[in-house]
Every structure is written in C-alpha cells, then in structure tokens.
Amino acid sequence: MTLTETILARASGRARVEPGDNIWVNTDVLLTHDVCGPGTIGVFHREFGRDAKVWDREKIVIIPDHYIFTADSLSNRNVDILRDFVREQHLPYFYDVIDDPEGHWQFDAARGQLKRQYGRSFAGVCHTALPEKGHVRPGEVLFGTDSHTCMAGAFGEFATGIGNTDAGFILGTGKLLIKVPETMRFYLDGALQKGVMAKDVILHVIGEIGFDGATYRAMQWQGPGASALGMDDRMTITNMAIEAGGKNGIFAADQTTFDFVDARCAANGTKADYQPAELSRDQRFVYDQAFDLSALEPTVAMHPNPGNRALAKTLGHITLDRAYIGSCTGGKTSDFLAFAEIVRGKRVAVDTFGVPATPGVVDDLHKAQWNGRSVWQWLEEAGVQMTENASCAACLGGPVDTFGRMNKPLTCISATNRNFPGRMGHKDSKVYLASPYTVAASALAGRISDPREFL
Amino acid sequence: MSDQLTARVFVVGDNIDTDQIIPAQYLTLLPTVPEEYALLGSYAMIGLPEGAYPTKFITPGTQETEYVVMVAGKNFGCGSSREHAPIALGAAGVRAVVAQGYARIFFRNSVATGEVFPYESVDRLCDVLKTGDEVTLDFSNDTLTHAGTVYALKPLGEVRPVVEAGGIFAYARQTGMIPAAS
Ligand code: SF4
C-alpha cells in the first residue's frame, strides 16, 4: 500500500484498503478557523442539538486567522462565535486573537495595520501554526475546514480539506466517510541550484500535470531529492497539492520530521506519541514520474491559474504594480530570509507587502541579525511594508480594508499559492505566483525577473 | 426529489473557481443563519468577470436566479474548500449543476450538504447550450434533454445514496451510523 493507503487502512480499522473504497475513518485532529468554524458549529448544533458535546475535546484545534485585522463587524463577530463555542465545550486548543476568554475581539483601525494587535495565545495562519503548536504527527489523520489543510502531509500524515457539513459531522462523531484516493508518485532526484526553491518545484510539477491533474488523488513525494528537503520546503510543496486538484500531498516521515515534531510537541505539551506509516515495497501508483531538481529554474504560475507555467526569465515584459510575500505557503521564516537576502541594502521599485504567517515568524525576523541589524529592519529599509499582524491578509482578498488587498485592477507578483481571478481582491487584477526569491527580485526590478541575476 | 426538472440554464466555461462562485469578502456571512443564507445566495456568481459573462446570474432587484440549472465545463468549483460555494448556488435557487468535471471538494460539499445535485456530463454541454436555454433533467434516467436531443449524464454511483438521503447527516441516520434525530 502507498503511504496514504497505509494510513487510511489503519484509521478505518482494516488490514488493507484499495483506491476507490469508501470507508469511515477516525479523525486524529479536526482543524477549523474563523471563516468556516462558525458555520461548522452551526451545523453541529443544528444536527446534534444545542446541548450536544463534541466527540473529543483534545482533538479539536481552532485557529482564527483569515479575517482578523479588519474593522468588518461580521468578521469580528465570527471570532466571538468561536470563543463562545470553546467556552461552552471547554476546548483546550483555541488560539484566540485576544487573551480575555470573556472578551470581544474588535480591530482598532486607528492604530493602523502594522503594529501588533493580538494577545499571547494568537497563533496566526492555521496551517503554519498547526505544526508550530505541536498538532501534527506522522501517521495521523487530519481534517480541516480549509483546502490547504493538505500542507500537513509534509509530516507524513493524511491531511485534507473538507466543508462545514462534514466538519460538523466530525465534531459530533469523530468520523468521516471518504473515498480512498489513487496515488501519484513524484520521485525527486538531484539538488536545487542556487536561486531555485521548493516553490519552483511545485509550480513546475503543477504546470506539468495541469492544475486539475491530481483531482481526487494523493500526491506522494519520494526520492533522495525529497529526503534532502527541510520541513519548510516540504510544507511549501504539500501545501499546493490542492492547486493540482489533489486530495492530499504526502512525504514519508523521516528523522527530519521526527526532530521537528518531537520538539514542537514537547514545547507545547501536546500528545507526543505517534505511529508513522512506513514506505512499503508493494505500492501501486496511477502515475509515477521522476524529476531532476538540478534541472529546475525559477518558475512562475501566470494569471489566471496555478497551472499556467512559465520560466521567470521569459517574463521580463510583465511590469508590476505590486509584490506580496506572505501566507501559509510563502510566509514562513525561511521564505522571509530568502526574500531578505535579495532585497537587503536595495530598494523595492513597486509597493511591496510582507505578512508573516505567524507571530513566531515575526519574532524570528526581529531576532535574526545581519550586520547588527534585524532582518525585519533590513526588510523595512528596503521599502517593504511589513506588518506584525500575522494572518491570511490579502492572500484571499478579504474585506476591503485588508492589508495588501488589491482594490483596483493591479498586477501583482506573490509568494502565495492561488491566482484565480479576484483571489487577492479586485476581480480584474492579475496575480503571478512565484518563489520568495523571484518575488523579491521582481519587486526590485518592477517587472518579473529571474532571481539568479540578483544573488 | 421529483424525477424531472425543467428549467433554464446558466452556462459557464472551464475552471470556474470558488472565488468566482462566491468571492472571499462574502465569507463572513454565516450559512446557518437564515438571513445570511439568503444574502449568500444574492451574491452567487458575482465574481464572474463581466466581460466574459455579460448576463447577470441573479435577477436584478431580487436575491435569486432564474437559472435553476448551472452548466459548466471542466474543473468546476476548484480552489478553496468553502462550503459557501454550493450553498450560495443552492440559496440562489440552483437545483443542479451539470459540469464536464468537478474539483473534489466542491463535489464533496454538494453531496454532503444536499444543496445542489452535482451531475457530470458525458458531452461538453457548455459548448452546446447557451444561457437561457430550457432543458429537462431526468434524475431517474440520468439524462438532460434540450430541443429534442437527449444527452447522457454520468450516474452518481456510490454517492447517490448520500445525495438521495439528503446529505451526510441524513445518510448516517438512515444507515444507523448516528442516532435518528429526536
Ligand atoms: S494564507 Fe492564504 S492559502 Fe493559507 S490559509 Fe490563509 S487564505 Fe488560505
């Protein structure tokens, strides 16, 4: 069985499963956030009753992250709905924006967008926060009310996005009826050349198979090139499985994974035992392709979809209005360090917005020092508008006052993961997806640029 | 569900993503609150670029559509996992979507919520039909008829019992997975 099949067989109490089997699986973690949490809670109350109790308090993780730093009153209300539910059910894992469990969240627009407006428990973008806070473990089954839940497959677990109704069902039962996906294998060989990042790998592959090329399927990453990648890079790759239509993306857990997971579970006091899925000899794939990492070049997904691939070096004629670095895919510490490596000591030529994925990333960037200055300072001095308010921000547009949102038909290069029409705001705006290196180089030049010229 | 439905269609092309079905700025609306459910319907398909889609999906001055069947090309509903997408269509009055293909989560959410019936067509109907055409869907025989021509639709297969039960909760109650509603 493939990694995905092995995990699903175990989670459904069977010795074996085959692609196409419809099985009830047990959930190890259910993740929800401020956009889909209130709807999920509504479904739970409607179907199981006002006094119903969730199936397992320890297995629910709630991370408000989408529409947080906005004066939109419905958005603020939605965070309050989460808090009420957490109080009602005594849930231990709620990463609230504010620290007062009886309080109400209200964004204060007068204080501006840049300075921190959250309390100690806030965790930032759910998919990046989930591993930081010790909620990912190899071999487990994670469901989340967000399509990029597949990111946690980087840790060797089965992780996929679901809707509110399915999530409401899990809240009451811990179970979900799912179809076992066929597995596609992507075998990575060789090493990335300087200036090429994990983001280029996934953009290349999506361009190769098409952005519906993995629909209903698992994307399994293997090979020496995969094992050599660090956790952040693996996360970038599994994050975008959904951008090829995939049900999940998955790497085999190895020492890199165990070190990361064990440290985070210990630091946060979360469940520390797990049973990884082993790579077996008898694996059947519906697609099996090798990729030589050393042959990859900086890659861009052009407007209007993530499969619309081109090499950065061929797009110099695309002039830009803005650049954006942030999100679960591209707002991790390693992403900002790569970005800063290029812009340090220079000046961006277009409006450039930086939104760290989590408060942890904000702290890392304040702490990391280059020549006596923090990376955060280097970024600001290069003209990047950096906000401490870690959240999804303009990655998905959001309310009109969202930081970095395109309220006009602009052209933007972005380190995020999705570029369908209107994704980052105005429906006639255009978004080009690229690695943090490529976004940085393009921000300096004001046009799409190959970062290898800047390193 | 009655066996047949005669209605006018709204036709879209390939890769209609969830931001076009219901843009992210409306996701603050809570589908389980009746007024907000209706409002979600009133914004259905508002993310379609006007250049390519000059006909308004929602009848001006109302919260509903006159097009009860949505006809689409490949990869309908790609993008986010937002259940607001099938819900917005259902709230606007859409009963069925007939697409050449679906993104996984949209299909799943349609089945789980019972909001819209997600049919897959054998032919590329988005090239055959145009917005405003009248069609008849036959749910017993899995066909769509337009101007005397009968087009085959793919049977729903293993998810049909879930759709027929009215969604995942009703199905789970029927099969004894969870206790019947009191
Ligand atoms: S950062 Fe973007 S892609 Fe990631 S969870 Fe938020 S909205 Fe989704």
Protein described:
- The complex is a heterodimer of chains A (455) and B (182).
- With 455 residues, chain A is of the alpha/beta class.
- Chain A has three domains: 3-177, 2-Layer Sandwich (Aconitase, domain 3), CATH 3.30.499.10; 182-249 and 269-295, Aconitase, Domain 2, CATH 3.40.1060; 299-453, Aconitase, domain 3 (2-Layer Sandwich).
- Chain A has 14 helices and 19 strands.
- Chain A has helices at residues 3-11, 37-48, 73-89, 126-132, 164-173, 198-209, 224-227, 231-239, 255-268, 327-330, 333-343, 359-367, 375-381, 436-445, and strands at residues 22-26, 29-32, 60-62, 141-144, 158-161, 175-179, 183-189, 218-222, 248-251, 287-292, 299-301, 309-311, 322-326, 351-355, 369-370, 373-374, 385-386, 411-414, 430-433.
- In chain A, a hairpin with a 2-residue loop joins strand 15 and strand 16 (373-374).
- The longest helix of chain A has 17 residues, at 73-89.
- Chain B has one domain (4-174): Aconitase, domain 4 (Alpha-Beta Barrel).
- In chain B, helix 2 packs across helix 3 (84-92).
- The longest helix of chain B is centred in the middle third of the chain and has 10 residues, at 104-113.
- The model of chain B has no long low-confidence stretch (mean pLDDT 94).
- At the A-B interface, helix 2, helix 3, helix 5 and strand 6 of A face helix 4 and helix 7 of B.
- The complex binds iron/sulfur cluster.
